[in-house]
Amino acid sequence: MAVGAVPVLLVDGHNVIFAWQDLKTTHQQRPAQARQELCRVLTAYQDISQVRVVVVFDGGQADPYPKAEPSAPGVQVFYASSQGSADSIIERLVTRYSGQYAITAASDDVAVQHAVAAADGCWISTSSLRRQVEAAIGEFRRKWTL
Fold it and tell me: pLDDT at residue 22 above 50?
């Protein structure tokens, strides 16, 4: 990784949704809303932390992903093909861009962890991501509450 590289957080979207109980509950009835809520929270985190966030969702779910599904401003969202997986996209992104960016991947998937380690990236669990996001948002609120 280059010195001073831009920090990028790659998020395994459905992995996070199913790990965070509030999003998992929402996803059971309203999958699109759960995805939008995750992107909303990660947009706030991106704005506060200056970390570039990329969210990758699996393809082939029962709930098809409309091509025009709104994406949170500033958070880049990828959907795997119907036969693809978020894991494979994250693995390719880490391998391709780890020399240019300071990449951290958030996923509980072991294959993603190994791919990230092999490319000299960093990995965090979905629970660590939640703590990191909540801490950043909490600090921002404490700092900017009038």
Answer: yes
The set of residues, in sequence order, having a beta carbon less than 8 Å from that of 87 and lying 6+ positions away, is 12, 107, 109, 111, 112
Q: How far does Cα 29 stand from its chain's mean position?
A: 21
Q: What is the rounded CA–CA span in Å between residue 20 and residue 18? A: 6
Domain positions in the chain are: 7-101+119-139
| Residue 76 bridge partners (DSSP) | 54
Please compute the mean of the pLDDT values over residues 16-29 and round it to a whole number. 97
Q: Strand locations in the chain, DSSP E?
A: 6-12, 52-57, 76-79, 101-106, 122-124
**How high is the mean pLDDT of the chain?**
88
* pLDDT grade for 71, boundaries at 50, 70 and 90: low
User: Does residue 138 carry a pLDDT above 70?
Assistant: yes
Closest Cα partner for 124 from 102, 111, 109, 106?
Answer: 106
The beta strand positions in 2-62, using DSSP E, are 6-12, 52-57
